[in-house]
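ESCALATION

Customer reports they have been waiting on this structure for their group meeting. Please prioritize. Original submission:
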Amino acid sequence: MEEFAKKVLERCSVDGVSYADVRFVETRFEELVVKNGQPETIKSDCKIGFGVRLIYNGAWGFASSSILSDEEGERVAKLAIEIAKASAYLKRRDVILAPAKPVKAKHRMPFEIDPFEVPLEERLSLLLRVDELMRSVEGIQLSEASMSLWHQRKLFVSTEGAAIEQERIEVGAGMTATAVRGSDVQRRSYPAAHGGNFAAKGYEFILSLNLEEHARRIAMEAVQLLDTEPCPSTVTTVIIGSNQMALQVHESCGHPTELDRVFGTEASFAGTSFLTPDKLGNFEYGSQIVNIVADATIEGSLGSFAYDDEGIPGQRFHLVKEGIFVGYLASRETAPLIGLKGSNGTMRAENYNAIPLIRMTNINLEPGDCTLEEMISDVGEGIFMDTNKSWSIDDKRLNFQFGCEIAWLIRNGRLVKMIKNPTYTGITYEFWRNCDAVGNESEWQLWGLPNCGKGEPMQTMHVGHGVPPARFRNVRVGVVK
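Update from on-call: job pushed to the front of the queue and completed.
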């Protein structure tokens, strides 16, 4: 495919074009869903094609196609140029790219068991057994187990001389049990809500989740929740479990540090950001124990990669250091606008037919120095919450409310009673400034999210979060009065 891509690049070599790149992407996807003892979804899909991105007269143009022929390559290149010409009439400023060293490389993410080689019957049988175990618990009205597989190959070439091939396998699985009594609906998920947990690994990751071992437990918890009291409405100390912390970091730190949001190019769909450039290096985002990093270098994590879709190496850097906001997720175009020397490698596209956007990699809360047990033991009155159920956050990523599947009241340093429908709300920087304990390395866990939405038309990106549980003081919980 490299020869084809280079031919397309040659078609972009016309007066006025200062830069061009071609991305070839082949993506294979399989999904299995079992619901109430029956297969509901058995899906297999493959997409293949190429996209052309270029700068003509200081403006971007992009076009793509699933037809891999010389004639189509020429047509798509010409179309990208025409789109850039039209865009140039409305540009606010010329696109200027930060310098980047052109890379020639091949990278294949390691895995142990190719999930696509595992027979469909074996994968489906696992989900059916998990589903049956959940339904064996009296009171469960709905049971669901799912599994997803991806295999992607990419080729990136540019007029600057870059030529990068990448290949990766991704997998994920999970289950949910739902109990119903009248109008009361309670659910429990494992290992996380919204489809489970995901990683850039092989089928060995699916096996490591031990779904069968946890099926009856989460089903029993769903039934138990029907008989518990609701979350009280008060201001109290809250400890947030690792799974819920992943979404907290995602929504209240990952998204607001995307530099295209700051400059308003994301405003029409998913909001802007309260982290404006004047705050860089001096704004107190959280307490001194809050350290948040973007890290695309963690082996096996969903948000990791060797090179982004501009050919920039994956990197590790701080977004928040000792409570101070110190960094953005940036591209070659946005980096110079705030004085950065170069991109920090966060531009990615969902597929060949989408233009790259600034996206999260692995946005991680760095470990602290205590265990979850120690955090709980130091609380007189409080609540421990985990596993996301709902979320809402404003356009600037400032005011938020989250709901969790399950919680426990804490009294005198002990978990004393399960409660249902727990919610908490806050203002992002006030919330993080009230963080007074962060779990240590033994509590730190990686979570993969394959459904981060952004852009118009929307692109769904796979990202990751490494987080421990953490404790926050003076948090409003329950119904806001």
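Sent to customer with the following note: The chain has two domains: 2-225, 229-477.
Escalation resolved.
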